[in-house]
Specification:
With about 525 residues, the protein is of the alpha/beta class. It has helices at about 1-10, 10-15, 25-30, 35-55, 65-75, 80-95, 100-120, 120-125, 140-145, 155-170, 200-215, 270, 275-285, 305-310, 350-355, 370-380, 395-405, 410-415, 440-450, 485-495, 495-520, 530-535, and strands at about 130, 170-180, 185-190, 195-200, 225-235, 240-250, 250-260, 290-295, 320-325, 335-340, 360-365, 385-390, 415-430, 435, 460, 470-480. The protein folds into three domains: about 1-115, no CATH class; about 125-140 and about 150-260, 2-Layer Sandwich (Beta-Lactamase); about 265-535, Rossmann fold (3-Layer(aba) Sandwich).
Length: about 525
C-alpha cells in the first residue's frame, strides 16, 4: 500500500522530466526502499532455495546431517555447497594421487561434457544408434550405468560406431578377426565381397568383442568354446537385427555378426531381379493350392529374400500363411511367423507337426536340414498345402540328390515336388561410373555369332558413390526347374536317374545359370568378370 500511495502522490512535474534532469538526491529521498538491494535479496532467496534442493539429492552430504545442512544452506546459499565441493575435490585428489588443479580440470571437463550432452540430448535420441539385447535393454543398462564419464564409455561408443558404419555401408556381415597377438582386423561383407575397413589394437578390440558378447547374452568369460547370440540396434524408428557367433582361434577370439535383411519383408519378385518368363513360371506355381517349391543355393545366395518375395506375391488376407524360421529375418504383418529355438526343444519337425493342425494354406520352411523335416514338408504338399522351403546345395539336380540321400522315398518326392529354383547373387554395376567394356576380338566375334550387342556390355570403373568398387547392390541369377510329369516318372521308375542327376544334370544347371547371367551382362546390369566370379 505504501508503494501505491507513493506512486499516486508523485508530482506530474517529475513524470514530465527526462532521467538526466531528475535530481538523484530527490529520487533517493522519495523512494522508501533501495530497488537494487530488493532485487538482490529476491535473487539470493531463490538461489538459497535452489541450493537447498541440490543439498537434498547431493551425495556429498550424509543423510544424518541433511536437516542441519538445509538450515545452514537457507542462510549461506551456495557458500556451503562450494565448501563441500572443495572438500570433495581435495579428497579425490588425495585418493587418485593427483594434484588439485588436475582434479578441478577433470571435473570442469566432465561438467561441460554433461552440459553438452543435455543440450544435444534431444537430437541424439533420434540420430544416435543404440544397441539392445533380446529383452530390449540397452548396452549401458547391461553394463550398469549410462554415465559418459566412465572409462569404458569409449569402448561402448566405438562398438556402436562399428555397427553404425556397417549399417550405413549396406554390409551383410561383420567379421572381427585376430591377425596376430597385437592386432585385430574388422571386415565388412558388402555386396557379397569382404573389405577390410579397420585395424584395432588387441586390448581395444577384445573390449569391443566383450561388449558385443554382453549385449548378445553370451558368456564373456568363455573364449574357447563356440557360442551363439543375438542383439538389435535401434536408430530413431528403424530397428536392425543381428546374429552373433564366436569361436576361439589362434591369437584370440573370432566374432562373426550376420546383419539380417530388415527390408526382406517388402521385397517383390521384380525387386529380386528375375526375368518376366521366370516371373510367370513362379507365379503359376505359387497360385496353385498345393505343391512344394524349393529354393537352392549356398549360404549368402539370397534364398530367404526370394522366399519372402514369393510370400509377398501371395494374397495373405485370403490365405492362411504360416512360416517356420531360424531366425525370423523380417516381419510379415499378415503372416504367422514361428521362430525355432532348439534350447527350448522347438525344432523344425515338431513345429511343422503343430502347424499342420492350424489350418494353414501356405507353409514356409526356413531350411530343410534333416529327413524328418523334409518328409513332413513333402507330405504337407500332398494334402492340400502350398509349401515353400530352402535347402543348402549348389544346383537343382544336387537338391534332388540330397533329398533322396536323406532317405525320402522316390514316390513321396515325385508326387510332392513341383518347382526347384537355384539362385546366385551377382553385383550390379554402379550406374554413375560404369563404362563400355574393352573386349577382345575373339569375344566380340563370339557375341556377334550369338546375336548379342557387345556395345551394351559394360565394366566397372569406380567412384565415390560405390566406394571405388564399381558395383552398387546385387541382383539374382536363377535357374528354374519345373518338375514335369516326365521328370516325376523318371524319379519314380528309373533308379538310374540318380546317377544321371549326380553327373550330367548338375552340369546343365550351371550352364543355365551362366545363360541367365549372360543375359544380365548383355543388358548392362553386371559385368563379365562378376559373372565369372559368381558362376564360373
Amino acid at each position: 500500500m505504501q508503494i501505491l500511495d507513493f506512486i499516486q502522490n508523485l508530482s506530474p512535474v517529475y513524470l514530465c522530466l527526462s532521467p538526466a534532469e531528475i535530481n538523484p538526491t530527490l529520487l533517493a529521498i522519495s523512494l522508501p526502499f533501495n530497488p537494487v538491494k530488493l532485487i538482490f535479496l529476491v535473487i539470493w532467496v531463490y538461489v538459497c532455495l535452489y541450493f537447498v534442493q541440490r543439498v537434498q539429492f547431493s551425495p556429498l552430504v550424509p543423510k544424518n546431517f541433511r536437516f542441519f545442512a538445509y538450515i545452514l544452506t537457507i542462510f549461506t546459499g551456495p557458500i556451503l555447497l562450494f565448501v563441500l565441493l572443495i572438500t570433495d575435490t581435495i579428497k579425490k585428489a588425495l585418493q587418485n594421487n593427483e594434484s588439485i588443479i588436475d582434479t578441478i580440470k577433470q571435473q570442469l571437463q566432465n561438467a561441460f561434457e554433461n552440459l553438452r550432452t543435455r543440450i544435444s540430448g534431444a537430437e541424439e535420441d533420434d540420430s544416435a544408434l543404440r544397441l539392445l539385447d533380446s529383452s530390449g535393454r540397452s548396452i549401458d543398462e547391461i553394463y550398469g550405468h549410462s554415465d559418459s564419464k566412465r572409462p569404458d564409455s569409449r569402448i561402448l561408443d566405438l562398438t556402436e560406431e562399428i555397427i553404425a558404419d556397417a549399417l550405413e555401408r549396406r554390409a551383410s556381415d561383420i567379421l572381427i578377426d585376430p591377425t596376430d597377438k597385437s592386432t585385430y582386423t574388422i571386415r565388412l561383407r558388402i555386396d557379397g565381397v569382404l573389405r577390410t575397413v579397420q585395424e584395432l589394437k588387441t586390448e581395444t578390440c577384445k573390449a569391443v568383442v566383450n561388449s558385443i558378447k554382453a549385449v548378445s547374452s553370451m558368456d564373456i568369460s568363455e573364449k574357447r568354446r563356440p557360442q551363439d547370440g543375438a542383439f538389435m540396434a535401434k536408430k530413431g524408428q528403424t530397428t536392425a537385427s543381428f546374429r552373433v557367433a564366436s569361436a576361439g582361434v589362434l591369437n584370440g577370439e573370432k566374432l562373426s555378426i550376420r546383419i539380417l535383411n530388415k527390408d526382406a519383408g517388402t521385397f517383390t519378385l521384380v525387386d529380386v531381379g528375375i526375368t518376366q518368363k521366370q516371373y510367370t513360371t513362379i507365379q503359376n506355381a505359387i497360385n496353385k493350392p498345393s505343391g512344394m517349391i524349393i529354393m537352392c543355393g549356398p549360404t549368402g545366395s539370397g534364398k530367404t529374400t526370394t522366399l519372402y518375395a514369393m510370400l509377398n506375391e501371395i494374397d495373405q488376407l485370403t490365405r492362411n500363411v504360416i512360416t517356420v524360421e531360424d531366425p525370423i529375418e523380417a516381419v510379415l504383418p499378415t503372416a504367422s511367423q514361428i521362430e525355432i529355438n532348439p534350447k527350448a526343444d522347438i525344432t523344425f519337425a515338431k513345429t511343422l507337426r503343430s502347424v499342420l493342425r492350424q489350418d494353414p494354406d501356405v507353409i514356409c520352411v526356413g531350411e530343410i536340414r534333416d529327413e524328418e523335416t523334409a518328409e513332413i514338408a513333402l507330405r504337407a504338399s500332398q494334402t492340400g498345402h502350398l509349401v515353400l522351403a530352402t535347402i543348402h546345395c549348389n544346383s537343382n539336380a544336387t537338391a534332388l540328390v540330397r533329398l533322396l540321400d536323406l532317405g525320402i522315398s522316390p514316390i513321396l518326392l515325385s508326387s510332392g515336388l513341383s518347382l526347384l529354383i537355384s539362385q546366385r547373387l551377382t553385383r550390379v554395376l554402379c550406374k554413375y561410373c560404369k563404362r563400355p567394356a574393352q573386349l577382345s576380338d575373339d569375344l566380340i566375334r563370339k557375341f556377334q555369332q550369338k546375336d548379342i550387342d557387345h556395345t551394351k556390355i559394360f565394366e566397372p570403373s569406380g567412384c565415390r558413390r560405390c566406394e571405388g568398387t564399381g558395383y552398387f547392390g546385387r541382383t539374382a541369377v536363377c535357374d528354374i526347374m519345373v518338375v514335369t510329369d516326365q521328370l516325376k516318372a523318371d524319379i519314380l521308375n528309373n533308379k538310374g536317374v540318380i546317377a544321371e542327376l549326380r553327373t550330367g544334370d548338375s552340369k546343365k544347371d550351371w550352364i543355365k545359370l551362366r545363360k541367365d547371367g549372360l543375359r544380365k551382362v548383355a543388358a548392362g546390369i553386371t559385368s563379365l568378370e562378376e559373372l565369372k566370379r559368381v558362376v564360373g
